[in-house]
Specification:
This protein is an alpha+beta fold. It has seven helices and 28 strands. The chain is globular.
């Protein structure tokens, strides 16, 4: 990848990772994590967008589920997959080369139009009840068209009802088959283990297909989790439903399966490991077209941070915008970041749930962000005081022992 890329920032996603946190040892910026001390804004983002790559706990995240919008927002430029298997390659990525590593053969794909490290928006949407009720794939689409913020005081906001079509289509479906399942009015009851439900869906040329299942209630009291598998050949995804009694339960109630491309009339199969029940209204199918996704990313790249230079704790770049805009930088927000425009400190905030955001006035500017670990100075001072106190205690105990002799 270093031989393919120019000297610029990018991240790498890997399909079917056997070991998480591989980016740390390969010296690449990755998107998978297996760490209990993860950035809380990253965890909130994964929850909001219903990232299907979150496994059985929030601190075990196996990438971005090959969702092109999430890959773009996270500044992913390269994707690695087992050689010959392109069924899960994110939309828009193109084959670059085949290589061998530790005896295994892989294909390297590149996004020819990646989202810039620093991209700008001209519209803001405040997080509302309507936003919270939207599906994860709908939220992903909106993040590519409108910056979402907790507070919007003094900024130009747009009401949810007035946001242009995000490009996420809800698709009608028919239940065409069931095994070990009863349908009781609006309730779908899974009577026995390994029950199956078949859905028929029709649409033309979708780059991404999603099945969303919410509020699955496990009725077998002997189980604290249930694996649910969704399949749209050749893609198959499994997510784990947890009960509050499970040790690592984290409150997830909506499960979003990304099943890749589809065209024409197809059959989607759901298999349930354990008995349970859910409502028909909580079972939805969504789709996105490639041209819509590409247009959204291209629009975000219209006014971006240029000539980006990085050191260990600082990032600097230049930007030129025709009007006041909102800059999103592809790093997780933290109060350890401070931002400067033309040398003057400015306010930072969480943009699109996870990212570092800054208001940019019209014109040409130099932007700089600096990171300092929150509480570092206080921690160093307290540690030094602790060492001094320990030294006094040690000296005192030695004197007392001598007196005792």
């Amino acid at each position: 990848m270093k031989n393919c890329a120019e000297d610029e920032f990018y991240r790498v996603d890997v399909q079917d990772k056997q070991i998480q946190n591989t980016g740390l040892v390969t010296h690449n910026y990755g998107v998978s994590t297996y760490l209990s001390l993860s950035n809380p804004y990253r965890l909130s983002w994964d929850s909001e967008v219903e990232n299907g790559a979150v496994e059985d706990s929030m601190f075990k995240v196996n990438g971005l589920d090959q969702r092109s919008g999430l890959e773009a927002l996270a500044c992913v430029r390269y994707y690695i997959a087992p050689a010959g298997d392109n069924s899960r390659v994110p939309c828009g990525f193109e084959w670059r080369k085949t290589f061998t590593k530790n005896g295994a053969v892989y294909d390297l794909y590149e996004n020819p139009n990646p989202l810039a490290f620093g991209t700008t928006y001209d519209k803001i949407q405040q997080k509302t009840n309507e936003w919270e009720k939207a599906s994860g794939c709908e939220k992903e689409s909106r993040m590519l068209t409108t910056m979402v913020r907790e507070k919007t005081d003094g900024t130009t906001t747009v009401e949810s009802s007035k946001i242009e079509d995000s490009g996420t289509l809800e698709l009608p479906y028919k239940i065409t088959g069931k095994k070990r399942i009863d349908i009781q009015g609006q309730d779908i009851v899974v009577k026995k283990k390994h029950a199956r439900l078949k859905l028929k869906v029709a649409a033309d040329n979708l780059a991404e297909t999603y099945v969303r299942l919410g509020n699955y209630e496990i009725t077998n009291e002997r189980f604290h989790y249930c694996d649910i598998t969704a399949a749209l050949e050749p893609v198959q995804k499994t997510l784990r439903v947890l009960t509050p009694e499970w040790n690592w339960y984290f409150g997830r109630k909506e499960y979003l399966f990304h099943l890749g491309k589809m065209s024409g009339e197809v059959e989607i199969t759901l298999e349930f490991q354990v008995e349970g029940r859910f409502s028909k209204k909580d079972l939805q199918v969504f789709g996105k077209k490639e041209e819509t996704i590409k247009a959204q990313i291209d629009h975000r790249n219209k006014y971006t941070l240029q000539n980006v230079k990085r050191t260990d704790n600082e990032v600097r770049g230049e930007i030129n915008v025709p009007e006041n805009r909102y800059l999103q930088l592809s790093v997780p927000y933290s109060n350890g970041w401070s931002a400067y425009i033309d040398g003057k400190e400015t306010e930072t905030y969480a943009a699109n749930v996870m990212f570092l955001g800054i208001d940019i006035p019209a014109g040409k500017h130099t932007v700089e962000i600096r990171y300092r670990t929150p509480g570092l100075t206080a921690g160093v001072i307290l540690s030094l005081l602790g060492c001094v106190a320990a030294g006094f205690i040690l000296c005192y105990e030695r004197k007392e022992r001598k007196r005792g002799l």
